Amino acid sequence: MEESFRKQGKIMVYCGQGRGKTSAALGYGMLEAGSGKKVIVIQFLKQKMLEEMEFLKRLEPEIRLFRFSKSEKSFEELSEEQKAEEKANFINALNYSKKVLATGECDVLILDEVLGLIDEHVIQCGELVQVMDSREECDIVLTGRVLPEGMLDTVDEVYQIQTMKQG
């Protein structure tokens, strides 16, 4: 008798006030891409950094980067009107992540700075949990400064990044 089962992907979080959350998430993505997995990175709330984007473009098709934000500035620097426009872009990006998970387009989905959407009151925790619950075999990596306490039971691994010394 043949047993069929599906392995559910894991959810990892890189959070904290220190630098390196995105680097850690991308490092995980590069390791997975190196073993033949497809990786999609969706960035939220980040200032457009051309050098980083150009480097990631060279890693295609194994690692694909999507940035729905239209502004060149970081979210904190925007006017209220510009923030409202960007919030709509972030919702589009979140909807795209749902589509990616539903269609199985990748093995690893990195939602870079997605936790900041909760901090900025763009989405509620439950909306992000819905996205995560729609995964099957896909690993999801979330980054951001703060992991809301109510989400701790939803994730598999949490890595707290902190600065111990700054020079």
Task: List the strand order in the largest sheet.
Answer: 3-2-4-5-1-6
Termini Cα gap: 62 Å
Tell me, rounded to a whole number, the average pLDDT. 88
User: What fraction of residues sit in β-strands?
Assistant: 15-25%
Tally the helices: 5
Number of domains: 1
Rg: 16 Å
Order of helix and strand elements from N to C terminus:
EHEHEHEHHEE
Low-confidence stretches: 1-6
CATH architecture name: 3-Layer(aba) Sandwich
Strand runs, count: 6
Q: What is the percent of helical residues?
A: 25-40%
Structural class: alpha/beta
**Overall outline:** globular
Biggest β-sheet, characterized? Answer: 6 strands, parallel
Name some characteristics of this structure.
about 20% strand, Rossmann fold, alpha/beta, disordered N terminus, six-stranded parallel sheet, about 170 residues
Can you tell me about this structure?
By secondary structure, this protein is α/β, with parallel strands linked by helices. The chain has one domain (11-160): P-loop containing nucleotide triphosphate hydrolases (Rossmann fold, 3-Layer(aba) Sandwich). The chain contains five helices and six strands, in the order βαβαβαβααββ. Strands 3-2-4-5-1-6 form a six-stranded parallel sheet, sandwiched between helices. Helix 2 (50-57) links the parallel strand 2 and strand 3 (63-67). It is globular. 31% of the residues are buried. The model is unreliable at 1-6 (pLDDT under 50).
